[in-house]
């Protein structure tokens, strides 16, 4: 449980495990930027709290869904986008290639 | 990385009569701290102190994907084993689960990694599948369940090799390697494993494996024929270090979208600082990534194997490279 908001934390996702020497705060910042870029392709915004326990996915109509792991981020994004998010989709890859 | 040592669980599968029990009997000799979970007591000729039977009872979870079924019986049995250990009734250092001949092993892995209590105490170590040297080729062609077990295996054991000519054994090994290059292939006679692997995994160099037994991974190829015609395998050599964040975000998105089509992921990654990390997953279920000491690996060549069904594997490489470029471009971002 989060001691600040009393929200129940999600189950540990395999991507939450610390891998490599990079500092946690830096990983979180990079992850925030990367997810924002990916979700922007679906008309969605991404933000998270500094601890990284809770993420928010929102659409441009003001709908917000809380996610507590990366797995939940994809499910929340699908719900708001109204369609599946596919990393093999050429349109998405074309857009991300222009940002990279 | 995880700090507390969890109890390793080996899953042993294979067609009826393929030599699972002989293998188990050998492995369990003198291993009083290893618990064995079978479907029914009567079906196995095992006399072992920590033998547990649990009838397969599955609960479908999530969106109805076949791999996301929870074995309620297994959760109860594993909790009972922990209880026995904590009460001092038994030592428990390892668990072996013998599947019924045609069982899909994916729900077992899903159960262990998803149950909130069990996953903190147990981890899936490896899936071992026995293939009978005499009848294996026919069973692979006739039973999709056998082929799926072979596709998902970490280690394939060709049994009864004393009953066939070496050429037939080598043909079967080549067929299995084509089907699942991520698996190490060993042979066994009367349950006794040969010390050295016949073929080492192309997806991850196994500690102590014989490097010269390793088939060079081609860039992309189709699986074996018959019912596995839609199975495609991609052995991706990674010739430059991987950005872990970009990889983890990409793979989790891929498995969320295409988990039913990605049957198996197994690989060895090298990060920018030279760290080696192994990744291993079965459909939606990813094992915890592990740091590997370079000295313990015979052939630390980074690469990743994808075994897919109905997926254009060539798109995987382009997609991964796009995500890697994007993640590297963001590497100048500072933390807050």
Written description of the protein model:
The complex is a heterodimer of chains A (100) and B (336). Chain A has 100 residues and is of the alpha+beta class. Chain A has a domain at 35-99. In chain A, 39% of the residues lie in helices and 14% in strands. Chain A is built from three helices and three strands, in the order H-E-E-E-H-H. Chain A has helices spanning 24-40, 70-81, 90-99; strands at 44-48, 55-59, 64-67. Chain A has a three-stranded antiparallel β-sheet with strand order 1-2-3. The longest helix of chain A has 17 residues, at 24-40. Chain A is globular. The mean pLDDT of chain A is 87. By secondary structure, chain B is α/β, with parallel strands linked by helices. Chain B has two domains: 7-199, P-loop containing nucleotide triphosphate hydrolases (Rossmann fold); 226-332, Hypothetical Protein Yjia, Chain: A,domain 2 (2-Layer Sandwich), CATH 3.30.1220. Chain B has nine helices and 17 strands. An eight-stranded mixed β-sheet of chain B has the order 3-2-6-1-7-8-9-10, with helices on both faces. In chain B, strands 11, 12, 13, 14, 15, 16 and 17 form a seven-stranded antiparallel β-sheet that branches. A two-stranded antiparallel sheet of chain B has the order 4-5. In chain B, a hairpin with a 5-residue loop joins strand 13 and strand 14. Chain B is globular. Mean pLDDT of chain B is 78; it is low at 58-64 and 204-227. Classes of the chains: A alpha+beta (100), B alpha/beta (336).
Relevant CATH superfamily of the largest domain in chain B: P-loop containing nucleotide triphosphate hydrolases
As a percent range, the share of strand residues of chain A is 5-15%
Radius of gyration of chain A, in angstroms, nearest whole number: 14 Å
CATH architecture of the largest domain in chain B: 3-Layer(aba) Sandwich
Which CATH class of the largest domain in chain B applies here?
Answer: Alpha Beta
Strand order of the largest sheet of chain B: 3-2-6-1-7-8-9-10
Helix content of chain A: 25-40%
User: How much strand content do the residues of chain B show?
Assistant: 25-35%
Order of helices and strands of chain A: HEEEHH
Structural class of chain A: alpha+beta
Q: Order of strands across the widest beta sheet of chain A? A: 1-2-3
Query: Structural class from helices and strands of chain B?
Result: alpha/beta
What is the percent of helical residues of chain B?
A: 25-40%
Could you give a short account of the major beta sheet of chain A? 3 strands, antiparallel
**How many separate structural domains of chain B?**
2
Radius of gyration of chain B: 20 Å
Largest interface: A-B, 39 and 44 residues
Total count of helical runs of at least 4 residues of chain B: 9
